[in-house]
Fold:
Amino acid sequence: MQIKQGESAMGNLNLKKYFLSKNLKRDIPSSIVVFLVALPLCLGIALASGAPLFAGVLTGIIGGIVVGTLSGSQLSVAGPAAGLTVIVLNGITSLGAYETFLMALVLAGAFQIILGIIKAGTIANYFPSSVIEGMLAAIGIILIMKQFPHAVGYDADFEGDEGFKQIDEHNTFSGITRAFARINYGAVIISIVSLAFMIYWPKFKKLAIVPAPLLVVLAGIGLSLAFSGTGLALLDKQFVRIPLVNSSAEFFALFKSPDFGQIGNKQVWITAATIAIVASLETLLSLEAVDKIDPIKRISPTNRELLAQGAGNIVSGMLGGLPMTAVIVRSSANVNAGARTKMSAIIHGIFLLVALLAIPSLINHIPLSCLAAILLMTGYKLARISLFKHMWHQGLSQFIPFVVTIVAVVMTDLLIGVGIGMLVGIFYILRTNLRNPYFYHLEKNGGKKVIRIKLAEEVSFLNKAAIQVTLTSLPQGAEVVIDGSGSRYIDPDVLEIIHNYKHNAYTKGIIVQLNEVKEKYDVPPLKEMVYNPN
Structure:
């Protein structure tokens, strides 16, 4: 028996090593992709937020290592979010000092931990599927439109902006128009070559062990060097610009600490609450979206994610970083690159740290146009035509909220667009609910018509109007049977309508028979729930 147990233990150990090795073969290449995507986005969001560039990279490092370790999600990636740039910029300006803003960020992290403890993350269970699918498609379309100017060599807007209105006083469409007028053909060639690698390299199975995005970056660096001194040369602003750190003393001087003396400042608390609410909503939306595109269809624990994000924001505030959320662009790039576990997000954070400390000069030779090609492919996969066909076949109640969400997100921003999509989605949910409170059946009893109305298992206040309209429209002289035998609960307002109708129906010559309709129903207990790690 001991030999068998030993063999079993050895077998389990080998199995664990096998899966770890198999996952790492996917996670390490994916982490390279996420690192390449995250680096310019971290810098761009820091620039747009009015914060030091170092703060953006630091936030990406913390999001990868700290949040990645604590999170229960296997595929989401945390970092500075474009949706918070206006809040951060206004917060730094109104509070008067970056250190005061950091105090607000630490408090925001504490608020998020409280939200996780009280299980506020369960709100994610109420996002309609059609709205989440629409958000994903909208992000794909935004990536294509926003990355096009970078791909052709000109964009005055910051890298990573997702809003329709831009801080350079233009919008998504006018930004594309301006890009056409200022094309850099060197950047265009790099983008085309990069897209060719992204499309065709994965088809060579034996060579695909080297990730296509890594080849894209190497090709971009090589072409930019070859174009140097010619008419195709790239400008300085068309490259990644990571801060150069020349010594350990200079590195540690970049960190900043919160001003704890401002904890009594009312404006600090208001800013903290705003960051906590917006960051938590963006995180929950991103988490739900990532679970949708996870090929293994795992469900991420939302409350644990709020705890992880809260811890990440506290660490970020203590060290001089920016607010962070789970971000859909980096997360979707992670999924599309083939990641399987959270190790991809953690390793991408390590890569950001190494890039900042060891190879900043090399990183600054990467053209933005080749990174734009990677994001263009990510956008194409998110907004694929097959998704639109699938949602159309689901029916108008799914397709209309899906399309409305896409248009609203593209024309406004993520939170406003999803909010509009939610309103339309809820309308269709209520509409469906209102139409299904009962089953209407016409029978014959000899020569007399009998109308049988069988009530649903649960009849809520929302069904009140539909039942009242049905009862008042029944023909005179009819015989009506209202059957509640299958109902576990009928709302008191609906019961009142039914009993009042029976009492007054004789004036129209209508005979009403109630079958197992009680005078009162107790509110049903919550249905037994499957264990959820939230």
In short: Strands lie at 78-80, 324-326, 438-445, 448-455, 458-459, 479-483, 489-490, 511-515. The chain has a mean pLDDT of 87.
